[in-house]
Amino acid sequence: MKGSKSNPSLRAYKKVSHESEKALPDEGRWNPSSLYRFPTPPMPQFPSKEVLLQAHSCIFIIFTLLRLAQGQDTQAYGFRKKLKDEIADVFAQIDCFESTEESRMAQKEKEMCIGRKKFNMDPAKGIQYLIEHKLLTSGVQDIAQFLYKGDGLNKTAIGTYLGEKDPINLQVLQAFVDCHEFANLNLVQALRQFLWSFRLPGEAQKIDRMMEAFAARYCLCNPGVFRSTDTCYVLSFSVIMLNTGLHNPNVRDRPPFERLVSMNRGINNGSDLPEEQLRNLFDSIKSEPFSIPEDDGGDLTHTFFNPDREGWLLKLGGRVKTWKRRWFILTDNCLYYFEFTTDKEPRGIIPLENLSVQKVDDPKKPFCLELYNPSCRGQKIKACKTDGDGKVVEGKHESYRISAANAEERDQWIEAIRASITRVPFYDLLSARKKKIASKQ
């Protein structure tokens, strides 16, 4: 090989080979458009290198053969034929690879579709299927992102999965809530975002875990807005109630602003929340209801939709012991009373939280029932009323005595009030959380 340094063909091969190597992109990806002067669409990036390495070898052959073919070599015809065969072979292999890749992607998409359907029917089995088919990892963050994006997922199924108390589900719930960014949002805006991402289930323990996680996340994103996560927790439920009371067509009498105020007295570690803050939340909900995922009606908000009972009753005054005829409406675990059926604003609001109802005998009126607080006898019931000047003031009743027209009507009211008090798990959650706040004072 002594004469190799003077061999022009070999020098040409080495030079072209070196130049082509420098022109190649990282990881040996070969773009055949470098052979042509006219523009070509970009090649897809393939994960397999075998075909591309072979193409790399072929490009050396192509450049070498082109250079040799330009000379006066007697075998030019054979070189040109071999050149055509090599080019055809390279592109045939690439076409085959593209076809295989498209087929693989189509199969993955089919499996993903099956996984979504399985999830919507049985969330746990759906997640397991996706993990087994390597469409999802078993990592908490990966599962949470999958649920947060929600592509093709039923929001009832998302709520079902997030509500389970298995350790993995609890971790996914926390990661799912952390996907939400609540910074610089007021509570109503944050709830709009949160409640649209899944359907809140109806079981008390599930509701508690989800709203606890929401309250913690909101307070973390907005430090200083509330004194504790308990405050955020209680106010969040009040806002949900307000939304359904204001916008459900079956609710005849809309809750006034004072209702929101009375429900949330002392929840900020013993202090009241600023009235301006509550007014902003009230106005936001009044102007635009929550967009809550529609479902079969078994979710939390459905339980507040239908007024339970309404009718004329006599009520005994608190400070002045006179009986007055009032139009009563039982809804939202609350008893409203009006002077006339046409009034838009109630004369008084009696939250039924922590209260009990019983039949009583009264010497002046028959068919009476009584609302009282069994754990705080002798203390005023938290309620509010409108005085003669239209100003909202606290109620002065230690108990409420009400008279019906007959025994049957009295018993029906007692039954309806008891059902309203015990029916909704939400109220037990609120009561427990308010007691927790009170114990810290």
From TrEMBL:
Protein keywords: Cell membrane, Coiled coil, Guanine-nucleotide releasing factor, Lipid-binding, Membrane
Topology class, membrane: Peripheral membrane protein
Organism lineage string: Eukaryota, Metazoa, Chordata, Craniata, Vertebrata
Main location: membrane
Pfam families reported for this sequence: PH, Sec7
Alphabetical list of PROSITE patterns matching this protein: PH_DOMAIN (PS50003), SEC7 (PS50190)
Claim: Zinc is one of the keywords in the record: no
Species assigned in the record: Microtus ochrogaster
Alphabetized Gene3D superfamilies for the sequence: 1.10.220.20, Arf Nucleotide-binding Site Opener,domain 2 (1.10.1000.11), Pleckstrin-homology domain (PH domain)/Phosphotyrosine-binding domain (PTB) (2.30.29.30)
A molecular function GO annotation: guanyl-nucleotide exchange factor activity
Cellular localization per UniProt: Cell membrane
Protein name per UniProt: Cytohesin-4
Chain intervals for the UniProt region annotation (Disordered): 1-28
Compositionally skewed regions (Basic and acidic residues) per UniProt: 16-28
One Gene Ontology CC term in the entry: plasma membrane
SEC7 domain mapped to chain residues: 101-288
Listed InterPro entries: PH-like_dom_sf, PH_domain, Sec7_C_sf, Sec7_dom, Sec7_dom_sf
One example of a Gene Ontology biological process annotation: regulation of ARF protein signal transduction
Domain PH per the UniProt entry, residue ranges: 306-422
